[in-house]
């Protein structure tokens, strides 16, 4: 029988795997954020559509997506701010995370009878993946500050 702790550990192992892939640092944070977002969206759609994929495999890939997105998002915001407005940029990110952590479970609980919360996550991630190229534009270099 699978316990909650084991399932969370699988997500963490997926994140650990991608964080140990040091070559990812050489890729553009924009592309890492975009591809990680698409990977998470596909995983959440897999759960929402109830595809016959083992839950452990999907959770491992979700961990991999999060392991790609979170470091890349910080690097992307550093590049977009131009190195000038770190405090303001990361406070906006913190506010967005806090609002999402508050509204997300509440919205998923209210809409659970009508629509899957995983489908809501899929829709939001696909919306972000569609808007990201429009907001960032071509001003992002292919090299990060750390390479």
TrEMBL record:
Signal peptide: none annotated. PROSITE patterns: MFS. Residues 1-147 form the Major facilitator superfamily (MFS) profile domain. It is a multi-pass membrane protein. Its main location: membrane. It holds the Pfam family MFS_1. SUPFAM superfamilies: MFS general substrate transporter. It is found in: Cell membrane. InterPro entries: MFS, MFS_dom, MFS_trans_sf, MFS_Transporters. The chain crosses the membrane at residues 6-24, 31-49, 55-78, 90-109, 115-136. Keywords: Cell membrane, Membrane, Transmembrane, Transmembrane helix, Transport. PANTHER family: INTEGRAL MEMBRANE TRANSPORT PROTEIN (PTHR23517:SF3), RESISTANCE PROTEIN MDTM, PUTATIVE-RELATED-RELATED (PTHR23517). This is Major facilitator superfamily (MFS) profile domain-containing protein. It comes from Paenibacillus cisolokensis.
